Amino acid sequence: MSASAHDRAYYESGIEDLETYLLSAELYWPSRAPTPDLTQLTPGGLLLVRARLTGWKATGLDALDARLDGIRSTWRSAWNGKAQREVRARSERWRGFLSGYRDDPRGVTRLYAQHVRQRAIPALLGEVSDPMDGWLKELWRAGAFVWDMNVQDGFPQTEFWFLYGKITFEEIT
Fold it and tell me: Cα 110 to the chain's mean position, in Å?
């Protein structure tokens, strides 16, 4: 199965399960159609695959988007509560990952593209900045998009600057 097919399956099954998930106490809900990087349903996971589907230029998403918007509107408080919890959880993971820079800068740099979704998902959930952004910008060198170029159109550089470049090995002064 292609990456875009995985994303579409996750999006479709996630929307199907969304109401039950939102009414549960769980932040992470097992996905019936996991992608290689997302095995659990979350509001941010849905928005991440939706943005990637935009990049993949997937067709026929209007009905799914309308259904997602309807459920979000009906269960706005539950959606917002899960989204806030997810932002906190992903921000903690992001800080934990970046805190390894001083001990292993090459490791953090090598694994950056894999872990940066912990920063991208809060951005998709409306969290424009992260406490680590100032530190990251001091080590940042603008450059190429870090994920599959086919999904780039779903992540505008002005909003997702941290997906366009890499961390340098310089120490903060």
Answer: 19
Give residue 170's pLDDT: 59
Rounded to an integer, what distance in angstroms lies between the CA atom of residue 107 and that of residue 102?
10
Q: What is the pLDDT of residues 9-52, one digit of tens each?
A: 999 999 999 999 999 999 999 999 999 999 999 999 999 999 99
| Residues near 159 by beta carbon (within 8 Å), at least 6 away in sequence | 123, 128
Cα dihedral 54, 125, 47, 12 sign: negative
Cα torsion for 6, 8, 9, 13, to the nearest 10°?
A: 140
Query: Residue 44's closest CA among 72, 64, 67?
Result: 72
Q: If we measure between CA atoms, which residue out of 63, 62, 58, 68 comes closest to residue 151?
A: 58
Task: Say how far apart CA 53 and CA 97 lie, in whole Å.
Answer: 27
Is 0.70 surpassed by the pTM of this model?
yes
C-alpha closest to that of 53 among 118, 111, 110, 124: 124
Nearest Cα to Cα of residue 143 among 158, 163, 171, 169: 163
Domain spans of the chain, in order of start: 1-173
- Where does the pLDDT of residue 89 fall: very low under 50, low under 70, confident under 90, or very high at 90 and above? very high
